[in-house]
Specification:
With about 450 residues, the chain is mainly beta. The chain has a single domain (about 20-450), classed as 1,4-Beta-D-Glucan Cellobiohydrolase I, Chain A. The protein is about 10% helix and about 30% strand. The protein is built from seven helices and 31 strands. It has helices at about 85-90, 95-100, 355-365, 370, 375-385, 400-405, 430-435, and strands at about 20-25, 35-40, 45, 50-55, 60, 70, 75, 90, 105, 110-115, 115-120, 120-125, 125-130, 140, 145-150, 160-165, 200-205, 205, 215, 220-225, 225-230, 230-240, 245-250, 255-260, 295, 300, 305-315, 320-330, 335, 385-395, 440-450. Strands 2, 3, 9, 10, 15, 27, 28, 29 and 31 form a nine-stranded mixed β-sheet that branches. Strands 4, 13, 14, 16, 22, 23 and 30 form a seven-stranded antiparallel β-sheet that branches. Pfam families: Glyco_hydro_7 (PF00840). Belongs to the glycosyl hydrolase 7 (cellulase C) family. Its EC number is 3.2.1.-. It comes from Ascobolus immersus RN42.
């Protein structure tokens, strides 16, 4: 997820929305159904999958007690005197998906509402994962395959992100690798991404409370000493104004906890970490076709659309090397091929390839960290190992989502190539404004399919 640094820090959590590794006994965890389809040239078959809420949103309390282990944006040091003690003393609860978090699943459709007021306070944003059953995530292997879904972003203004992406999480949420983790995938544990986020309250079965720094901007979030890293394939980061799809490579081969320089945090360490934070993004607006995606444009965000992403290998087999990530849209019965690059000095590519990444990075004066960490080859190896599907809605307390839909970085002139990423004005995505003005913003994903090339749409 490009330019998010402390990834998903922007999610505002109410007092009850925190994480742990033990399992509470007050609320039953019932996973909403979200069936998908797997497709071949012979047709499509329905698979009965489910969703689970990320553990970072859940109420954490002392075992056998209603006392919070994490309150506001601070840990209770009496209960959590150490990372290990916190894992032993604290429990995570089941959740009310719709009433507390604004998450509604119906048929093959999933709606994520931005702000939900409930009896305990207010929830902002959410993130869920697709499950094969109540204890394991559904693992996707995407080489020589395509992934397709329908999406409605018409109710997502500047500053919001309705995201759908793949990450190399453990199938069981880390339960087997880390004995302190008693909750596992059933309670949404084990998150990682290429930003190596420090805002995760639990990593590797331990509380991330060492050096915990409460956020000055977000009253319910903070960052700890450790981050959690893995390869990430951003299929869809979007609102009604802009969209990008972006692979992020890492030198790791599975989810790993990081600290210090290896996390690649902001400043001089950004391009020294184990993961590529910028990614090799394809954003049609940034690539010069400003009339392709948006309200009333060729891909019209006032209406639902179908989004197809193909992972093409060099030998046409799943055993091959990833050489191209191709995007196709379908809307109102019409297949729409991806836009072509319209940037001086860059050939008119219409998909992500090594050649595209090299040319775009050079034209925009961007660091080629994606290529340094293995680029498309490494991304393909990671996808072949198996990825978990994440779906989320969030706002951005660090950069106001300007890396997606406005002019970014802020210290560069918008007239420079690659700086304008969408039509949103700088500052339009300020989280405080977005939360106040667009609480009912919603993204709806539906009709998820995975299958052989050219079989899902």
């Amino acid at each position: 997820m490009q330019f998010k640094f402390a990834s998903l820090l922007a999610f505002t959590l109410g007092a009850i929305q925190v994480a742990t590794q033990q399992v509470g006994q007050y609320d039953t965890e019932t996973h909403p159904s979200l069936p998908i389809q797997t497709c071949t040239k012979s047709g499509c078959t329905t698979v009965q999958t489910k969703i689970v809420l990320d553990s970072n949103w859940r109420w954490t309390h002392k075992v056998g007690d209603y006392k919070n282990c994490y309150d506001g944006n601070k840990w209770d040091t009496a209960t959590c005197s150490s990372p290990e003690a916190c894992a032993k003393n604290c429990a995570v609860e089941g959740v009310n998906y719709s009433g507390t978090y604004g998450i509604t699943a119906s048929g093959n459709s999933l709606s994520l509402k931005f702000v939900t007021k409930h009896q305990y306070g207010t929830n902002v944003g959410s993130r869920v994962y697709l499950m094969a059953n109540d204890d394991k995530y559904y693992m996707f292997k995407l080489l020589n395959k395509e992934f397709t879904f329908d999406v409605d972003v018409s109710k997502l203004p500047c500053g919001l992100n309705g995201a759908l992406y793949f990450i190399q999480m453990d199938e069981d949420g880390g339960k087997a690798r880390f004995p302190n983790n008693k909750a596992g995938a059933k309670y949404g544990t084990g998150y990682c991404d290429a930003q190596c986020p420090h805002d995760m309250k639990w990593i590797n079965g331990e509380a991330n409370l060492l050096d915990w720094k409460p956020s000055d901007l977000d009253a319910n979030s903070g960052v700890g000493r450790y981050g959690t890293c893995c390869d990430e394939m951003d299929i869809w980061e979007a609102n009604s104004m802009a969209t990008a799809y972006t692979p992020h490579s890492c030198s790791t081969t599975k989810q790993e906890r990081c600290s210090g320089t290896q996390c690649g945090d902001n400043g001089p360490d950004r391009y020294l970490g184990v993961c590529d934070k910028d990614g090799c993004d394809f954003n049609s607006y940034r690539m010069g076709d400003t009339g392709f995606y948006g309200k009333g444009k060729k891909v019209n965000t006032n209406q639902k659309m179908t989004v197809v992403t193909q992972f093409i290998t060099d030998n046409g087999q799943a055993s091959g090397t990833l050489k191209e990530i191709r995007r196709i849209y379908k809307q109102n019965g019409q297949v729409i091929q991806n836009s072509r690059v319209q940037v001086a000095g860059v050939p008119d590519y219409d998909s992500i390839t090594t050649e595209y990444c090299d040319a775009a990075k050079a034209a925009f004066n961007d660091n080629p960290h994606f290529q340094t960490l293995g680029g498309m080859r490494k991304m393909g190896q990671s996808l072949n190992a198996g990825h978990v599907l994440a779906l989320s809605i969030w706002d951005d307390y660090y950069a106001s989502m300007q890396w997606l839909d406005s002019a970014y970085p802020l210290d560069r002139d918008p007239s420079e190539p690659g700086i304008k990423r969408g039509e949103c004005e700088r500052g339009a995505g300020d989280p405080k404004k977005v939360e106040a003005n667009s609480p009912d913003a919603t993204v709806t994903f539906s009709n998820i399919k995975v299958g052989d090339l050219n079989t899902t749409y």
